[in-house]
Design brief:
Blueprint: H1 47-55, E1 62-69, E2 71-72, E3 84-85, H2 89-110, E4 115-123, H3 131-144, E5 151-156, H4 163-171, E6 174-182, H5 186-192, H6 198-210, E7 215-222, H7 229-241, E8 246-251, H8 273-289, E9 293-295, E10 299-301, H9 306-312, E11 317-319, E12 322-324, E13 330-334, E14 339-342, E15 345-349, H10 353-361, E16 367-372, H11 375-390, E17 392-394, H12 401-412, E18 416-419, E19 422-425, H13 433-439
Parallel strand pairs: 1-4, 1-13, 2-3, 4-5, 5-6, 6-7, 7-8
Antiparallel strand pairs: 8-10, 9-10, 11-12, 14-15, 15-16, 17-19, 18-19
Helix pairs in contact: 2-3, 2-10, 7-8, 11-13
The chain binds iron/sulfur cluster.
Iron/sulfur cluster (SF4) binds next to loops.
């Protein structure tokens, strides 16, 4: 049972199945948007490897494309994304030129092979570019890759969406949109350097629905400065009232030594680990009570949303964009820091936008690093994906004594069961899913990455 300190909320106490075992959450673990993770990428993988992978794509192979726009009109203090201010039009124009050239390069290497099913725009904030530039990008990709009616999705900074952007979203048939909301509380907004009145979110929600968006996601955060369960509850209620199809509830990771812009956040006003856990549990319970289906460990979707349907049908996957119903084995990333995924390879473009542009100007793919996916890592990646997405996985043939010991800790607490060659997560294991998956990650024992607390 969660007990809220705020009396106004006592009547809304919610039952949770989650029990806090701090000893199981001490170890920072990857988010596993890939396996091997980006912490394993090296410069042993380069442009030639990616070119070969593109040339090996067979005719008709389903392809997903991702375009990274590393610019935002305003930079939020908590943000860990690869992004910079969009206040220099010449820099934006040079970046867009490079994107168009990269599209042509990749299309040439594919030689007409592959069928583009999805195009996702993320960042940064794709709406930091001009609406017409977005139309040109979509048009260029449709022509270069002979795409027919792909599912287009777009990340949006709600503070800067003009009427022209809404018109362009309708005209280009964007169908999925994801909006950074984070919190509705004005004091918390101030503390994270992201002020956006509720009325702005309400208006944009209506406009996006009118423009044809069929799946609308709100990103929310817990563990923010000046936030406690009562404050989070207000945000959850206001978010649910706007009826987004999906809600992602992320825990804020405060690592100013790695993300210098976070130094502007007052660490003394951050909630402690116990409060963070209670907030995550509150979010889970509230959203489930509102009719949302939990997806993986931090997503929630209305039962009719394609993500929820995919989860029920065992078709949920995890890729660089998080939990997804996208089943393609091929994801081609465009732009600075974008990651491409092939069955045999992960390859990441240069993170620095200047280096990215230089490579393109030299007529080269801007691949900077990556990792080969050998059969052992693919088997391990499947197990980790199955645990995160399906809550069940095939036990490896051999476990080290340390792995067996770690698993036993979860068995003893009733969080998992093992038997019949399988590991099965119980419903109360949600906050521990990444930690359980990490037990099967042989690379993690030798790695000190910039991983985050599991909750
Ligand atoms: S708008 Fe989004 S991507 Fe841009 S700085 Fe804020 S959180 Fe980061």
């Amino acid at each position: 049972m969660i007990f809220l300190k705020d009396n106004r909320l006592q009547s809304r106490q919610l039952c949770t199945m989650w029990t806090h075992y701090p000893e199981l959450l001490r170890r920072p673990v990857p988010r596993y948007t890939s396996y091997p993770t980006a912490a394993d990428f090296t410069d042993q993988v380069g442009a030639e490897d990616q070119a070969l992978a593109l040339q090996r794509v067979e005719p008709g192979t389903p392809l997903s494309l991702y375009v990274h726009i590393p610019f935002c009109e305003e930079i939020c203090w908590y943000c860990g994304c690869n992004t910079a201010r969009s206040n220099r039009p010449s820099r934006l124009a040079a970046y867009l030129d490079a994107l168009h050239e990269e599209i042509a390069l990749v299309a040439g290497l594919l030689g007409g092979h592959g069928r583009v099913r999805r195009i996702a725009f993320g960042g940064g904030s794709p709406n930091a570019i001009q609406p017409l530039d977005f139309v040109r990008l979509v048009g260029d990709m449709m022509v270069a890759f002979h795409a027919e009616d792909p599912l287009i999705s777009l990340e949006i900074d709600p503070r800067h969406v003009s009427d022209d952007w809404i018109r362009v979203i309708r005209a280009t048939k964007v169908r999925y949109a994801s909006m950074g909301v984070q919190t509705f509380d004005p004091h918390v907004q101030e503390a994270i350097g992201r002020v956006q009145p509720r009325a702005q979110i309400e208006r944009l929600t209506r406009s996006l629905r009118d423009a044809g968006i069929i799946s609308l996601n709100f990103d929310l955060m817990y563990g923010l400065p000046r936030q406690n369960r009562a404050v989070l509850m207000e945000t959850l209620e206001q978010a649910a009232a706007l009826q987004p199809d999906r809600i992602a509830l992320f825990g804020y990771a405060h690592v100013p030594s790695v993300i210098p812009r976070q130094r502007r956040i007052d660490a003394s006003s951050l909630p402690d680990e116990a409060e963070r856990f209670a907030m995550a549990a509150l979010g889970h319970d509230f959203l489930v009570a509102q009719g949302y289906q939990p997806i993986g460990f931090d997503h929630f979707a209305r039962p009719a949303d394609p993500l929820a349907v995919a989860a029920r049908e065992g078709r949920l996957h995890r890729n660089f964009q998080g939990f997804t119903d996208d089943e393609s084995q091929y994801l081609i990333g465009f732009g600075a820091s974008a990651i491409s995924q092939f069955p045999e390879l992960y390859a990441q473009n240069a993170k620095n936008a200047g280096h990215y542009r230089q490579a393109i100007a030299a007529g080269r793919l801007p691949t900077e690093r990556g990792v080969a996916r050998d059969p052992a890592s693919r088997t391990c990646g499947k197990l980790i994906n199955d645990i995160l997405c399906q809550g069940i996985g095939e036990m490896p043939d051999h476990l080290t004594p340390s792995q067996s010991e770690m698993l036993e800790e979860f068995v003893q607490r009733g969080l998992i069961t093992t038997g019949g060659g399988q590991v099965r997560l119980r419903p109360n294991a949600a906050p521990y899913v990444r930690t359980i998956a990490a037990i099967f990650d042989p690379r993690l024992a030798h790695k000190i990455g910039n991983f985050s607390a599991p909750v």
